Structure prediction request, 165 residues.
Amino acid sequence: MNLYTLHDKPKSLQGYAKRDNVVPELIKKQIESGEPANVQQLKSIASNHKLALWYAKDIIKGRFPGGEPVIASYPYYAYLYAEYVINGRFPGGEKAIASDPQYALWYARDVIKGRFTEGEPAIASDPHPAYWYAKTIIKGRFPEGEKAIASNPYYNKQYRKLLNK
Prediction:
């Protein structure tokens, strides 16, 4: 129960500013102790990307549709949800994943197990993921990533070796 909703001036109460950081942790402890969540608590979990992923992965051990919109808005959590909860593609989270070079690479490698064309522009922008995408996913030339790869002497050398196999 959110006691702040019962007060005329909840902002004047001690702890109000920290309520969103403290209350979700209390809900988590309650559920971990074996007490089920009520509807309001599930709404709170569904609005917090960390808790929504935890709830899906560790508590219900499956998809949590109520939490998917918030999970989908964070590249890291969307990737983890796809990898460890869905065990497959997470279309709702692909836009966020595609915006981050590292998670786009991992999504291609661990989830899709092949090319992730939506994520290639981000991957191509960073030498590390661009090289590893060329090496492990494409297994050859990655023209879109060559500018970024060339900017890093180590990856540039490794990329040239890859292409001269």
Notes: Residues 1-71 form one domain.
